[in-house]
Write a structure and sequence with these properties.
Blueprint (H helix, E strand, L loop, with lengths): L1 H18 L6 E2 L22 H4 L1 H11 L4 E2 L33 E5 L16 H13 L3 E5 L10 H17 L6 E2 L11 E6 L4 E6 L6 E4 L6 E6 L7 E4 L17 E4 L11 E6 L1
Parallel strand pairs: 1-2, 3-4
Antiparallel strand pairs: 5-6, 6-7, 7-12, 8-11, 9-12, 10-11
Length: 280
């Protein structure tokens, strides 16, 4: 009886949220532990599921009020969005039963805590923040980063610095993230690199986690690129196909299908340099 009363209370709250504040794009429920018995290593996970939440009614209420809304899958009923949390998928997330590719969003924190915690000591490094973003998009996902304000309603200096990492990098490199997804399977990124690709397929983005010396060989891209440039400044990156044009590389057995980029000796002043490859 008490749970039915709570489920009605929650529907009323959702009704208020989706009625009084204009168009709402996303409704993010959190969380269901249906089937957990509250024993063993995950004893804290004993909890409730779709029947307890009356999730069918809850979702129907939301969609009746906001027909275009996106809802996550945490009511214990599959909806629009899968939400892996506190780990980074290394490939496109698939449906456990059908194997189909799903729409997914990595759910992460700037530090180890979801809310503000004064003594938190596990803030992620700037390099890790950018790599998490790139890794997520390169696997077809979206990145959700959580940050919590202090009791005064402000973000503390560590949170401000973490947000600035994204702002500074995205100022110049956002084209490799927005409107991009996992690259087509035919494109294999070299070591220490990640590809993203524009949804229309016309542009491939090479993200360099480790900056190489002088040359970078891109497998299988010979004959497929008509122009290459750094995203941060729009400067041209020269390339040849098959073999490296260098006196000491004459004995190298290169693959004729490779594209070789010629890079400046100094890494650009950005955490992860990006080269935009405009495809034929």
């Amino acid at each position: 009886r008490d749970m039915r009363k709570y489920a009605e209370y929650m529907r009323n709250q959702v009704t208020e949220l989706l009625t009084n504040y204009g168009k709402i794009d996303i409704l993010w429920f959190d969380f269901s532990y249906d089937g957990r018995d509250g024993e063993g290593a995950q004893s804290w996970m004993k909890g409730k599921g779709k029947n307890d939440w009356e999730a069918d009614k809850l979702i129907a209420t939301a969609r009746s009020l906001q027909p275009d809304i996106i809802i996550d899958n945490r009511t214990d009923i599959e909806q629009d969005l899968w939400t892996p949390e506190q780990y980074q998928p290394v490939k496109w997330v698939t449906h456990q039963e059908t194997g189909e590719l799903v729409t997914w969003e990595a759910c992460q924190t700037f530090s180890g805590s979801w809310g503000y915690y004064r003594d938190e000591q596990t803030w992620k490094s700037p390099e890790m923040l950018i790599r998490m973003l790139v890794n997520t998009v390169s696997c077809g996902g979206n990145l959700l980063m959580n940050v919590g304000p202090t009791s005064r309603g402000y973000l503390d200096y560590r949170a401000e610095e973490a947000l600035k990492v994204y702002a500074d990098w995205m100022k110049y490199n956002s084209r490799s993230i927005y409107g991009c997804t996992m690259a087509e399977p035919e494109f294999t990124a070299p070591a220490d690199c990640r590809y993203t690709q524009s949804v229309d397929g016309s542009r491939l983005y090479l993200h360099m986690f480790a900056y190489p010396f002088a040359h970078l060989r891109l497998p299988g891209l010979a004959g497929k690129v008509k122009y290459a440039q750094f995203l941060h400044d729009g400067s041209e990156v020269l390339y040849t196909e098959g073999s490296i044009d260098h006196f000491s590389a004459k004995d190298e057995n290169g693959d004729a299908g490779d594209l070789i980029l010629y890079l400046p000796p100094v890494k650009p002043h950005t955490l992860v340099p990006v080269i935009e490859l405009i495809l034929e």
